Amino acid sequence: DGLPATALGFNPPDLNVMQKPPRRKEDSLISGWVFFRYMVIGMYVGIATVGVFVYWYVYDVDSEDRHTLVPFNDLISWGSCKSWEGFRPRDIVGRSFAKDPCSYFTAGKVKASTLSLTVLVVIEMLNAFNALSEDGSLIQMPPWTNPWLVLACLGSVLVHFLVLYTPFLAHIFAVCPLDWHDWVLVMSFSLPVILIDEVLKFFGRCLPSRQTGRRSRFSKTD
């Protein structure tokens, strides 16, 4: 996310910047409300990244590769799979588990790991768009208000595509190509970060200035 982080420096000013009072020198850089927002978004990033991994193993009944699903309790206790009777996972992404069925949870996790990595990449790109404005909605300040950010995010995603779909690079990074169903899954776990931050921004605009860390227009100066 180096390119998007750099491109955020070219963000236009907030639409209501002239209605806000200047920051006092003793004001904290990150208010309690902003810290809470970061915590909520960070928690969702963790849940989505781990969640898509678990979903692939436990619930992904519509997958195109028709991989073997396992109960959640078996997934979290996969280390004891040698004692499981009749466990014969299907071969996926060119890997056979006939000799060692338990390798389905080691070498066979390449698709689940790739999904987790891709969700993390996509969420970070969407979070970059969330950072266009501290409290302004993406409806008010759409992504194209900073074209450099759009180009930077596209560049980062293209690099990720290059890694996924170039066999030599995919082998180095221990990932695999994703099919259409996989990308639908990625976007299903990634897009909610936009909605969550939009809701938080809405409440941020509604809260009194003292709670969000912004001073009132009529507050006294020292």
Structural class category: mainly alpha
SSE pattern, N- to C-terminal: HHHHHHHHH
Q: Into which percent range does the helicity of residues fall? A: 40-55%
Mean pLDDT: 86
Q: Tell me the Rg in angstroms.
A: 22 Å
Please, how many helices? 9
How many beta-strand runs? 0
- Biggest β-sheet strands, sense, barrel: none
Q: Uncertain spans, ≥5 residues at pLDDT below 50? A: 215-222
Head-to-tail CA distance between termini: 40 Å
What is the overall silhouette? Answer: elongated
Percentage of residues in strands: under 5%
Descriptive account of the structure:
This protein has helices at residues 2-7, 32-58, 72-76, 110-130, 147-165, 167-172, 180-190, 192-206, 209-212. With 222 residues, the chain is mostly helical. It is built from nine helices and no strands.
Which key phrases capture this entry?
222 residues; mainly alpha; 51% helix; elongated
Question: What would you say about this model in short?
Answer:
The protein is mainly α and 222 residues long.
What's the structural blueprint in terms of helices and strands?
Elements: H1 2-7, H2 32-58, H3 72-76, H4 110-130, H5 147-165, H6 167-172, H7 180-190, H8 192-206, H9 209-212
